[in-house]
Amino acid sequence: MKRSTGGVAVEGRHIIKNFRIGNTPTKVLKDISLQVMQGEFVSIMGPSGSGKSTLLYILGGLDTPTSGHVLLNGTDISGFGDEKMSRIRRQKIGFVFQFYNLIPNLNVEENIMLPLLLDGKKMGGYQKQLEQILEIVGLSDRRRHTPRELSGG
Hints:
The protein is an alpha+beta fold.
């Protein structure tokens, strides 16, 4: 895996996540620590039910750990409220879900740009970045297609 010359983009420190199903506690994440450097691509692999999605949700601020800390660009986001986390997710964090959560009546381009529009920014100033994103994910030629016009694979 190639290391970036940038700093740490996201860091998990001693992340623990427990769930309670009825009276039965389930330990899903057990003292996970990791760093992802700026510009680095990372894969999280493991068997079904091993906590991969739970870890991603916690690192992305969609869920909170039972204990431990998540730092985004050196800032501990573990105690941030919903409104502040929503803004951070729109501005700093991107997700592509396995069962993608796309707006059905928006095309690919509009779905990608939606967080910027929610922040009151104009799409015109981000065309170069949009082109790069579409190229990376292989959808340059399908940019005007809606989610129902795309393959599930």
